[in-house]
Amino acid sequence: MSKDIEIRNLCVSFPEKNGVSQVVTDVHALFGEGVVTGLIGESGSGKSVLGMSILQLLPKNAVVEGSCMYEGRNLYNLTQEEMRKIRGQEIALIPQNPSESLNPIRRIGKQLIEGVTAHKSLSRKEARNRRDALLVRFGFPEPEKINRAYTFQLSGGMNQRVISALGLMEQPEWVIADEPTKGLDAILRRQVYRVLKEISEQETRGMIVITHDIALAGALCKRLMVLYKGTVLEQGETAQILENPAHPYTQGLIASLPEKGMHPIRRADPGKISETKGCRFYPRCPYGTEKCRKTLPPEIQLPDGRLVRCNRYAGDI
Ligand SMILES: Nc1ncnc2c1ncn2[C@@H]1O[C@H](COP(=O)(O)OP(=O)(O)OP(=O)(O)O)[C@@H](O)[C@H]1O
Ligand code: NI
């Protein structure tokens, strides 16, 4: 049975007072076994929504259409009971907001072993050993101090690392790490990167890393998916995308990196903002045409294998 995670035709919307707000539109993604895939894109592009959809962790009012196949089952159709068996043990999420996931009135050490002992995947002693070893790997040389602490006594960056350890406690087959290096200084970022790299090579079947940290994505991920306003504009091998971005948005994203001179992507043309039918990037695109304004470009495969959703590669403009 395939341990790939394959998303097809994913659309996610939220009902609003004046209609619906569609935040993910027709996403296809194959997260292959043995591959670390990075999801990159500006704030609000739908990275976390996509990640959370896999584990049915979106709020109840979210409307999720499409399929997410894993081991022959569509995860979007599983009951909460079936989903509970998958979360944490098969596929674990390291969430974006640690403070929402940690209990404010329980000591960190207890929280880290709770899930494992409830699922009986490890004995109490094994669970404590794994917890302490993970804490050391995530940059806490004296784990007993952290174990005794409460979440409010820790900094944002410390909580972020605690939540990474928590996500890995049950030795999941898959890890979805949402901004694992957020709030960390350069040294700790490198440390977290090294641990995730080791874990992806030694323990997991695959990993999805959601990040704004393109350096992290470049170092850790074999493949990248670039999201913009809920659509995937480019996906393929990391080296191809970073060295030779094809989509005008990816080109802009890379040109805005500090090492590339920090040239910001230009703002949306106010006259074009209301265009909603065509390419999502049309209002900001330096190459936008009438065709881009009117229709969502198809996903086009380039000779090197990557997929790009842009009319410039459709061959007829
Ligand atoms: N519960 C919700 N109700 C309504 N809209 C939502 C909800 N959750 C997310 N959204 C909207 O969905 C869009 C995508 O949000 P998402 O959190 O996935 O972005 P993101 O790419 O992870 O951004 P960031 O990098 O800031 O974390 C945003 O426009 C957001 O406002
Ligand atoms: Ni997010």
From TrEMBL:
It is a peripheral membrane protein. GO terms for molecular function: ABC-type nickel transporter activity; ATP binding; ATP hydrolysis activity. It is an enzyme of class 7 (translocase). One of its GO terms (biological process) is peptide transport. It is found in: Cell membrane. Its main location: membrane. One of its GO terms (cellular component) is plasma membrane. Keywords: ATP-binding, Cell membrane, Ion transport, Membrane, Nickel, Nickel transport, Nucleotide-binding, Translocase, Transport. Transmembrane segments: none annotated. It catalyses: Ni(2+)(out) + ATP + H2O = Ni(2+)(in) + ADP + phosphate + H(+). InterPro entries: AAA+_ATPase (IPR003593), ABC_Ni/Peptide_Import (IPR050388), ABC_transporter-like_ATP-bd (IPR003439), Oligopep_ABC_C (IPR013563), P-loop_NTPase (IPR027417). It holds the Pfam family oligo_HPY. SUPFAM superfamilies: P-loop containing nucleoside triphosphate hydrolases (SSF52540). Gene3D superfamilies: P-loop containing nucleotide triphosphate hydrolases. SMART domains: AAA (SM00382). Residues 5-254 form the ABC transporter domain. Its EC number is 7.2.2.11. The keyword Membrane applies. The complex is composed of two ATP-binding proteins (NikD and NikE), two transmembrane proteins (NikB and NikC) and a solute-binding protein (NikA). Belongs to the ABC transporter superfamily. This is Nickel import system ATP-binding protein NikD. It comes from Marvinbryantia formatexigens DSM 14469. The lineage of its organism: Bacteria, Bacillati, Bacillota, Clostridia, Lachnospirales.
